[in-house]
């Protein structure tokens, strides 16, 4: 309760878990407040009409508005808790009570009914504390009995009073006996309900498993409630005659006592020991609701009342902290964090604003309630992180493989090929020497031809590993050369600037075209290939189509290589290959 | 004939020098890098420059770039490029619009010493030499691009290939074991079929054929 000053103001209604969705809650709140205002205006009109108007006449309206305001705040802060709603309902009864001052009999009747039900409303609040829901038949019976005891005898008195009534059916003629009996019944029954309720509450307090702040809060709420409830009849029956109070003063005292009630309840569920229970209830509702897809962060932020709350998930293999998307992050805030732990390690770290939430154990407990949901989130984050890691490492592997290809091609070229060419030259020189034995000349020429063949084999090998043209002239020249060599005629179209592509994209695109061509040559039995390579601002599109037998699958060895290359470049891959209708491969590589 | 030889591999360079000296050429200088080649060619003005493609300082296609530059700035100097790559594109870049005194050969051709020596002489005397492998790539490409080549007989295609390689009618006749007269007949049929202009000057007809194949 002492925390209330530190609260930086109640927050506006936010989307609620469980029974009330955000829209429904806002609608309900708007409705309650509108109804309250209308009633207050009507009541004010009634007060103004009555003469002489006194402070006491306006009091019920004022208290009713206070109930409505406090109830609305509590309701919007704890949408899963019904106490806020109940406070609003009780406030409405107060506003109804203010109609007592009106001139019309029907208004007066409603006013009296409202005024009497207020006490039943407070009893209802007490029995429904802290969740706002009545549990068990006994509680329900007590509350119903409360409402009936305050209204039925009153109705009887009214019907048998002999005074003019609202509706003819209420007119039972004057009967002083019934009126007296009703009055007695009212007193006896009300006292009985009050006593039983008191006993129930005392028992509940005793049996309550709660300790510490919760137990204290519960005791304070119960005591205040019971005191107020007993004070009302006490003030009328004892205080007024004994202390010789004016009825006006008595009325003001009663109203004043009742005005305390909503604050006690609201503070108890928002800031007191029960704040925790209420929070957990919110989270429990969130867990159980169909709305479970709402991020756990939002549910926690709403329950704890800290919109800036952040979640971090420890990645088990490294101990790094991940965000929901699996990115490695460093929590910015210094200090205000709480770790939620499970048996096999930390599940999440909750970073919160310690100026909003003073007690870390509050956060801890909330985190424990949703620990399973947090664990699910943590696993998702870890999976995402691993996927990213895999993508990166795959991309690194391809990069390394390409570098390796380049180096390998260069080494073959620089070391082996020039050696072989030199040997060819030597063999040729030997064979062309004058006056050579024809047999030796023949052997020398054969050796030269073998070496020449070796040079050509090596050239084909080097070309397959990494064509020099790709490195020296870029994608267009290399791809054109590649397609020129295809045994199946290729109709190629080139659009856009194909120079100045990132090296990874141009290498990737070249090998994708090479794979696609090799596949077509090997499997498609196509008679023509159509290739379109288009460079737009931010993407390179490869459209490769043959008129062959189709039926290619993306899992085939060649196409798997294509897919790997596309994945690594974060591109898109589409394969259309219906049987007997050719194969079309569409690839888009980002190159911004 | 005075030659410059540019090759960064020492042994290979010395081998080339030896072979060509033996064949009666005068070696006016050697270079192991593209930039020294340029400077040397400028100074010596040889009849033919024989150069490797892959050379320092860039270790990429520096030799080719130098060769193209020499052809542009020193019109009287023949250029024979020895390449590791069967690259139609490189050959076309080298020839440009003037096929006189230019050659593009795969490196291993230097093993066929006699033919290589002939090729150097042909380039030195303003002829054209294009490696058969490169011409084959051009033929395949042209066949895919337009069906005209399908109309030629195999013999006519052989003749066309040899013309594209820069061979003279006499050389083609010797190569195919037919009379020079039949080569001329084949050639005129080819020109008719492909719609090419008849041009008696050797390097001009090479240009026409290459243009046709690269179209």
From TrEMBL, chain A:
Residue ranges of domain Histidine kinase/HSP90-like ATPase in the record: 507-590
EC number(s) from the headed UniProt entry: 2.7.13.3
Limits of the Signal transduction histidine kinase subgroup 3 dimerisation and phosphoacceptor domain: 404-468
Known catalytic reactions: ATP + protein L-histidine = ADP + protein N-phospho-L-histidine
UniProt keywords, alphabetically: ATP-binding, Kinase, Membrane, Nucleotide-binding, Phosphoprotein, Transferase, Transmembrane, Transmembrane helix, Two-component regulatory system
Transmembrane regions listed in the UniProt entry: 59-76, 83-100, 106-129, 141-160, 180-200, 220-239, 251-270
Superkingdom, natural source: Bacteria
Molecular function terms from GO: kinase activity
Gene3D superfamilies assigned to the protein according to its UniProt record, in alphabetical order: 1.20.5.1930, Histidine kinase-like ATPase, C-terminal domain
Pfam families cross-referenced by the UniProt entry: HATPase_c (PF02518), HisKA_3 (PF07730)
PANTHER family according to UniProt: NITRATE/NITRITE SENSOR PROTEIN NARX-RELATED (PTHR24421), NITRATE_NITRITE SENSOR PROTEIN NARQ (PTHR24421:SF10)
Protein name according to UniProt: histidine kinase
Organism: Pseudonocardia charpentierae
Species lineage: Bacteria, Bacillati, Actinomycetota, Actinomycetes, Pseudonocardiales
TrEMBL record, chain B:
Organism: Pseudonocardia charpentierae
Modified residues (4-aspartylphosphate): 52
Domain Response regulatory: 2-122
Stored Pfam families: GerE (PF00196), Response_reg (PF00072)
Record-linked InterPro entries: CheY-like_superfamily, NreC/VraR/RcsB-like_REC, Sig_transdc_resp-reg_C-effctor, Sig_transdc_resp-reg_receiver, Tscrpt_reg_LuxR_C, WalR-like
Keywords of the record: DNA-binding, Phosphoprotein, Transcription, Transcription regulation
Domain (HTH luxR-type) ranges: 145-215
Protein's UniProt name: Response regulator transcription factor
Keyword flag Transcription: yes
């Amino acid at each position: 309760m002492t925390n209330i000053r530190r609260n930086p103001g109640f927050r506006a209604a936010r989307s609620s878990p469980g029974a009330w969705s955000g829209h429904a809650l806002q609608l309900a709140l708007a409705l309650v407040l509108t109804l309250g205002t209308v009633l207050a205006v009507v009541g004010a009109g009634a007060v103004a009409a009555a003469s002489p108007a006194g402070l006491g006449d306006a009091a019920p309206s004022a208290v009713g508005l206070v109930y409505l305001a406090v109830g609305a705040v509590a309701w919007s802060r704890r949408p899963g808790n019904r106490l806020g709603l109940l406070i609003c309902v009780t406030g409405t009864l107060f506003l109804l009570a203010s109609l007592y001052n009106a001139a019309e009999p029907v208004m007066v009747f409603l006013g009296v009914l409202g005024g009497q039900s207020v006490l039943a409303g407070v009893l209802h609040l007490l029995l429904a504390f802290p969740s706002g829901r009545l549990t068990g038949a006994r509680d329900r019976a007590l509350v119903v009995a409360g409402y009936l005891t305050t209204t039925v005898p009153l109705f009887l008195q009214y019907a048998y009073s002999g005074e003019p009534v609202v509706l003819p059916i209420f007119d039972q003629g004057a009967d002083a006996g019934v009126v007296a009996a009703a009055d007695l019944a009212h007193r006896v029954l009300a006292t009985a309900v009050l006593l039983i309720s008191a006993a129930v509450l005392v028992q509940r307090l005793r049996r309550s498993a709660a300790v510490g702040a919760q137990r204290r809060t519960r005791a304070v709420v119960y005591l205040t409630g019971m005191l107020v409830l007993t004070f009302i009849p006490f003030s009328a029956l004892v205080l007024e005659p004994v202390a010789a109070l004016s009825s006006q003063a008595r009325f003001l005292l009663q109203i004043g006592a009742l005005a305390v009630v909503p604050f006690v309840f609201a503070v108890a569920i928002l800031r007191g020991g029960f704040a925790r229970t209420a929070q957990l209830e919110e989270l429990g509702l969130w867990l159980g609701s169909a709305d479970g897809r709402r991020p756990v962060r939002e549910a926690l932020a709403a329950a704890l009342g800290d919109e800036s709350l952040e979640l971090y998930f420890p990645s088990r293999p490294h101990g790094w902290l991940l965000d929901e998307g699996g990115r490695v992050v460093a929590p910015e805030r210094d200090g205000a964090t709480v770790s939620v732990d499970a048996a096999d390690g930390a599940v999440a770290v909750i970073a919160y604003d310690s100026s909003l939430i003073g007690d870390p154990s509050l956060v801890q407990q909330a985190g424990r309630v949703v620990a399973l949901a947090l664990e699910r989130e943590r696993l998702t984050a870890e999976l995402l992180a691993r996927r990213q890691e895999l993508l990166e490492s795959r991309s690194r592997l391809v990069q390394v493989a390409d570098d390796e290809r380049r180096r390998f091609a260069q080494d073959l070229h620089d070391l082996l090929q020039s050696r072989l060419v030199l040997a060819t030259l030597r063999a040729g020189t030997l064979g062309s020497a004058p006056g050579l034995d024809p047999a030796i000349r023949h052997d020398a020429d054969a050796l030269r031809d073998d070496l020449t063949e070796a040079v050509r084999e090596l050239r084909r090998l080097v070309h397959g590993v990494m064509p020099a043209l790709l490195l020296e002239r870029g994608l267009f020249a290399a791809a054109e050369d590649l397609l020129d060599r295809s045994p199946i005629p290729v109709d190629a179209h080139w659009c856009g600037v194909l120079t100045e592509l990132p090296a990874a994209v141009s290498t990737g695109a070249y090998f994708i075209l090479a794979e696609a061509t090799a596949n077509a040559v090997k499997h498609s039995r196509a008679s023509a290939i159509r290739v379109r390579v288009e460079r737009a601002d931010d993407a390179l599109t490869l459209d490769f189509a043959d008129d062959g037998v189709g039926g290619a699958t993306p899992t085939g060895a060649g196409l798997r290589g294509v897919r790997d290359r596309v994945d690594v470049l974060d591109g898109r891959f589409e394969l259309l290959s219906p049987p007997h209708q050719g194969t079309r491969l569409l690839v888009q590589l980002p190159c911004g | 004939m005075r030659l410059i030889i540019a090759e960064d591999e020492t042994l290979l360079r010395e081998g080339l020098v030896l072979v060509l000296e033996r064949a009666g050429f005068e070696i006016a200088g050697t270079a192991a890098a593209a930039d020294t080649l340029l400077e040397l060619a400028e100074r010596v003005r040889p009849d033919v420059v024989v150069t490797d493609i892959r050379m320092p300082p860039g270790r990429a296609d520096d030799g080719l770039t130098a060769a193209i530059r020499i052809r542009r700035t020193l019109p009287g100097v023949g250029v024979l490029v020895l390449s590791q790559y069967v690259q139609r594109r490189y050959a076309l870049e080298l020839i440009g619009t003037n096929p006189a005194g230019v050659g593009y050969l795969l490196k291993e051709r230097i093993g066929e010493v006699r033919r290589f020596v002939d090729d150097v002489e042909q380039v030195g005397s303003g002829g054209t030499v294009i490696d058969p492998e490169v011409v084959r790539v051009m033929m395949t490409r042209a066949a895919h691009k337009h069906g005209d080549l399908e109309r030629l007989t195999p013999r006519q295609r052989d003749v066309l290939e040899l013309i594209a390689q820069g061979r003279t009618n006499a050389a083609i006749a010797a190569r195919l074991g037919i009379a020079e007269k039949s080569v001329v007949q084949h050639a005129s049929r080819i020109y008719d079929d492909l719609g090419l202009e008849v041009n008696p000057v050797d390097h001009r007809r090479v240009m026409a054929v290459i243009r046709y194949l690269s179209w």
